[in-house]
Every structure is written in structure tokens, then in C-alpha cells.
Amino acid sequence: MRPATIAIDGPAASGKSTLGYYIAQYLNYLYLDTGVLYRAVTWAALNQKVAIADEAAITTLAQELDITVSPKIQNHHHEEDGRQYTVTSDGQDITWAIRTPEVDGNVSPVSVYPGVREALTRRMREIAAQGKVVMVGRDIGTVVIPDADLKLYVIASAEERAKRRYEELLIRGKRTTYEAVLNNIRQRDKIDSGREAAPLCAAEDAVEFDTTAYSKAEMFKAIIEIVENWNTQGNN
Ligand code: CDP
Q1: Quick one: which atom of ligand 1 is closest to the CA of 188?
Q2: What CATH number should be reported for the domain holding residue 104?
Q3: For residues 117 and 197, is the Cβ–Cβ distance under 8 A?
Q4: Cα-to-centroid distance, 121 and ligand 1 (Å)
Q5: Which segments of the chain have a pLDDT < 70?
Q6: Which of 100, 107, 197, 221 is deepest in the core (most CB within 10 A)?
């Protein structure tokens, strides 16, 4: 027996999406990185010049935006460019557009709005209902699918997370500094953990997974062990 639904939560750049994507491939499960939905709403707001402070307008945007997330790992030139999936909004490929420092700087305030969360959580649950799924985010084990078979809470030091995210942004040619990335990560952690609706926190029955000192290979080995031993830990 293996867990059918896996919920992975944790703070920014903790390694949760690398782990989630890997284990979904390993198990041949559907993978959904739910941060993508919050990022897509934020990107659309910036793009349409909707003020981030306008809760009603942002909520309407979240309710009406046509977002798709598909398992395509190639861009429209049929090249693999490091994407784990393709995100579109109203038909436009926004896979990389949602990963800019501008979106990083505005996504947490957008994610505070209860109406935004309600609209996006509904979409996530529709996807989870299809069965075998690995879902990654901030409130998956606590709010979105609290009955998930396996819950992981992935953490790492803020400095290590900033280093990883800074390197990712550099590779993609984004102009930023380590200090700016660290500040953004600290700011988002604070807003995400402190908000009223579905704050970032570990579910009571989550397994804590600290990736600070782990290489990717070590992370992958550890998660396979957790998944393969799931049944022997008193679950069924
Ligand atoms: O990849 P990274 O950890 O930097 O962020 P993400 O997972 O893409 O999430 C971006 C933002 O969306 C977070 O900082 C949260 O504010 C919000 N989010 C959320 O509130 N609930 C989720 N389930 C997923 C993301």
C-alpha cells in the first residue's frame, strides 16, 4: 500500500516543489504546485494594473481567471526549459512570467484575501478529488485536503532558502541580489504565517522534513523512504 494523496507544505523555497515533483514522477501521480494559482492571480493583477490593495477587484479576478496547469514540460518551441509543467492564463503561457521578483513581492498580500483563497481552494479540491495526487503549498495538509494520506512539512533555514532561490533567479537571468531575495523570503514567511485565513503551519499529523543540509539526491532518497515505509508506520 502507498499513500494515494500526499500533501506537502512549507515556507518559500524550502525544497517542497522539488520534492513534490520528484515523488509524483516516482509514483506516477498527478502533481499540483498550488502556489502557481496564487501567482497567476498576482501576475494578472499586475498585468491588468489592478491595485493589489483592492480586495474586491482581486477577488473577482481570482474567481474569473481562466488558469490551466498541464503536465507539459516543453515550451511552444518544443524545448525543455526547466519547467515542471505549463501554466496558461486565457491561453497565454505564463509559466515563467509568474516567477519574477515582482510577483514574488506581491503574491503574499494577494494570498491573504479570504475570497481569493476560497476560489482557488475550490479548484484545488476538484483536482484532488481525481485521486492519486501530490499537492504542494502552504495549507494543503491543514485546509485543502486535511484527509491526505501522507503529510509532509518541509523546512530549511532562511539563509539556505534565499541561497537556493537566488541561484534559481540568476540562472534565469533575473537581476536581483541575495539580500533582496532573503528579505522577500522573510517578508513572505511573516505574511503567510501570520494571516487569519489558512496560515502556513504544520498539520498535527505532518512529518517534518528539514532539507537545510541535504543535497537533492539525499532529499530524494529520504522521501522515497518515507513513502515506501508509509504503510508500516501504522497507516493503512
Ligand atoms: O515557490 P515558493 O515557495 O517561493 O512559493 P509558492 O509555493 O509558489 O507560493 C507563492 C505564495 O502563494 C506564497 O508565499 C503564499 O503567499 C501563497 N500560497 C498560499 O497562500 N497557499 C498555498 N497553498 C500556496 C501558496
Answers
A1: 14
A2: 3.40.50.300
A3: yes
A4: 13
A5: 232-236
A6: 107
